[in-house]
Design brief:
Blueprint lengths: L2 E4 L6 E4 L6 H16 L3 E9 L2 E8 L6 E7 L1 E8 L10 E7 L4 E5 L3 E7 L3 E9 L7 E3 L17 E3 L8 H5 L6 H8 L11 H10 L5 H9 L11 H4 L32 E5 L4 H10 L4 E6 L2 H4 L6 E2 L5 H11 L3 E4 L6 H6 L1 H22 L2 E7 L22 H16 L3 E6 L2 E2 L6 H8 L7 E3 L3 E2 L2 E2 H13 L5 H8 L1 E4 L6 E2 H14 L10 E3 L19 H7 L6 H14 L4 H4 L2
Parallel strand pairs: 4-12, 13-14, 13-16, 14-15, 16-17, 17-18, 18-23, 19-22, 20-25
Antiparallel strand pairs: 1-2, 2-8, 3-10, 4-9, 4-11, 5-8, 5-10, 6-7, 6-9, 21-24
The protein binds NADP nicotinamide-adenine-dinucleotide phosphate (NAP).
Pathway: Carbohydrate biosynthesis; dTDP-L-rhamnose biosynthesis
GO biological process, one term: dTDP-rhamnose biosynthetic process
Pfam family, one: dTDP_sugar_isom
Length: 585
């Protein structure tokens, strides 16, 4: 059975089903479920792609066929664009992360264009479309239509399937406009490239067709300043219909999108994010691109999931850390690693010591060596959880478990190293990717009727998306000299979303949000118990409240309430969106 969830693009739905094992088994199970639910006969195929490859958006004209897609292996960003002029979401686009892990598919009605780019080293996509009679009604939309400014994960290394007939959205929406692509093909046969024509060829054709609408057609080719490497020929500049360079979003009636937060800026400082496969590391890689060139580092590139391919590092081996840092020679080292599984840290204190305590110390040594600054993340678990008052930066740590103890050692080593640093002490992190309690509860509440959570364990749920974005905003005032900025404004700060809740209250909020977003929820209410009654082997502090007022006052920040941020992130999780600049609006 496939469950459907609405998305922000009218008529496009997320399809949720259970993963069924290997990709070939999964493909046939998926295809037969689609046929049963949505009817046939259908054309089915499995498409294989590599990292960076981009399949340009295509659409079926109204009355044409619907399509479904689902990622069988790897990870890809799928972008849907509404080309239906009469739709309430016309000219809007939205992106979804489809992966073998989230086992989600998409239902794309006729009139909605869909394209995709692979972000994992390899990916397989199961594609199914209803067969329809008569001529193909398929059309193509330019992947780089400047008015749409689609935030693809990266500039495509390999562009698949963008034919010469690809049109701007404006041309699709206004069928009376002359068909630019046909002009390109038939009137300028000597042009080798489907996008650009030599200025001389345009001039010659213009001369021949002086009195026709072709002038305007060619003007349309040329006025897109964001793409033209050519000078406008004089006669073209003066031709009727040419009004100068057209900036993205200038055309009337088209809703232009904000430039993606994933675009790199011109600053060239190299930022090394160690632990880029973790939930916080992943978001840091996405946001910090605004400040410089981000290089991810992790031990399993398959889990990194973003371009470019990360550097290898095993932080339990000092030599590996040193090699990675000396190879990249960053201006900023961001340590998002940690042995975060508290029970594992308790069982294996040697690894906890290496990862949480020794590794940050080595990173700080290397940072000094290459002249870099450091960002590090510490935990609320360095406190013993007594009382009910939120902990501030001046409170004395007194960890109860190995995780807290080793994280404290790592933090102290960085502070003692003299390297310019910013240490953010946070807690109860969750994200729309990776493993965390919010994602587990969202999944569990759709099929479990009873779950018990602690009612005396308090903290502030904090989204990694917000944390990474906030850190990027903080650092953005120091992009001219990140190290200098850290030396002047750095230090240790508490930083989490605003307000506190018990684990049960967080669970109740998650259920309420899921219901609001029409997720079929089976669980009605959580059972509550004292933390001591739950089967958790490792002692954990009960009071994990953090007081973030010092950083908020110092940098004039307004912290979002944890409930608002949680609602936003769950909406994103159910949409599978990965583009924060879009979704936050
Ligand atoms: N999660 C929380 O609630 C929380 C609360 C407060 C503070 N923090 C701190 O915030 C930071 C990020 O947390 P998170 O929730 O994003 O953690 P996470 O999702 O568990 O990610 C941890 C990262 O550390 C990497 N790592 C662990 N051992 C490694 C090794 N030997 N070699 C290379 N990489 C290794 C992991 O790599 P693999 O993917 O290969 O395992 C992963 O990339 C950590 O410093 C954590 O202590 C977390």
């Amino acid at each position: 059975m496939i469950h459907t969830l609405p998305t922000r693009i009218s008529g496009v739905e997320i399809l949720r089903s259970q993963a069924t094992g290997t990709s070939s088994k999964e493909a046939s199970a998926w295809f037969s479920a689609i046929s049963q639910q949505f009817g046939g006969p259908r054309r089915e195929r499995v498409v294989c792609t590599r990292a960076g490859q981009l399949t340009a958006p295509s659409y079926y004209r109204l009355g044409g066929t619907d399509r479904t897609l689902r990622c069988l292996s790897g990870e890809m960003v799928v972008v849907v664009i509404d080309t239906r002029h009469d739709s309430p979401t016309f000219a809007q686009w939205h992106s979804f992360l489809l992966s073998s892990d989230n086992a989600r598919g998409l239902w794309i009605p006729a009139g909605v264009a869909v394209g995709w780019q692979t972000v994992s080293p390899r990916a397989q996509l199961a594609f199914s479309q209803r067969l329809c009679q008569g001529r193909s009604q398929q059309g193509w939309l330019r992947w780089d239509d400047p008015q749409l400014a689609i935030g693809w994960p990266s500039i495509p290394q390999d562009l698949l399937e963008q034919p010469a007939t690809a049109l701007d959205l404006e041309e699709i929406a206004n069928p009376d406009l002359p068909c630019l692509a046909q002009v390109r093909r038939t009137k300028v046969p000597q042009a080798k490239c489907s996008v650009w024509y030599p200025a001389a060829a345009i001039r010659r054709t213009l001369h021949r067709q002086e009195k026709t609408r072709t002038q305007i057609q060619f003007a349309k080719v040329q006025v897109d300043a964001s793409r033209t490497p050519l000078q406008l020929p004089n006669e073209l500049s003066n031709a009727p219909g040419v009004v100068g360079a057209r900036q993205p979003g200038a055309a009337a009636g088209i809703t232009s999108r904000a430039t993606s937060a994933m675009e790199p800026t011109t600053a060239k400082d190299v930022i090394l994010v160690i632990g880029s496969s973790g939930q916080l590391g992943h978001d840091l890689c996405r946001y910090l691109r605004q400040l410089g060139t981000v290089v991810g580092a992790c031990r399993d590139p398959e889990k990194h999931g973003l371009l470019p391919v990360p550097t290898f590092v095993d932080i339990s081996r000092p030599a590996s850390i040193r090699t990675a840092i000396r190879k990249v020679r960053p201006k900023l080292i961001v340590n998002a690693t940690g042995l975060t599984n508290v029970d594992r840290a308790e069982k294996d204190p040697r690894i906890a010591q290496l990862v949480n305590a020794a590794a940050p110390a080595i990173m700080a040594e290397e940072a000094r060596e290459v002249g870099a600054g450091m960002i590090h993340f510490c935990t609320d678990m360095v406190f013993d959880g007594s009382g009910e008052r939120p902990w501030n930066e001046r409170d004395r740590p007194n960890p109860l478990n190995q995780y807290g103890r080793t994280k404290l050692l790592g933090t102290e080593a960085i502070r003692a190293s003299g390297v310019p640093h910013l240490i953010l002490r946070t807690g109860w992190l969750y994200s729309t990717h990776g493993e965390n309690y919010v994602k587990s509860i969202v999944d569990l509440c759709t099929y479990r009727s009873s779950i018990t959570l602690a009612s005396d364990h308090f903290g502030s749920p904090t989204s990694t998306d917000w944390l990474a974005r906030t850190l990027t905003e903080l650092l953005s005032s120091g992009t001219n000299d990140l190290v200098g900025w850290l030396a002047q404004f750095g230090g240790l700060y508490h930083l989490s979303n605003l307000g506190f809740a018990s684990r049960v209250e967080v669970g109740d909020q998650i259920i309420a949000t899921c219901k609001q977003l029409t997720l079929p929820v089976v669980l009605q209410k959580f059972h509550s118990a004292k933390q001591a009654e739950l089967p958790t082997p490792t002692p954990c502090p009960l009071n994990c409240r953090l007081d973030s007022s010092a950083i908020a006052v110092k940098f004039g920040m307004t912290l979002p309430r944890w409930q608002a941020e949680l609602n936003l992130q769950i909406a994103k999780l159910l949409d599978s969106s990965i583009l924060p600049a879009q979704s936050v609006a």
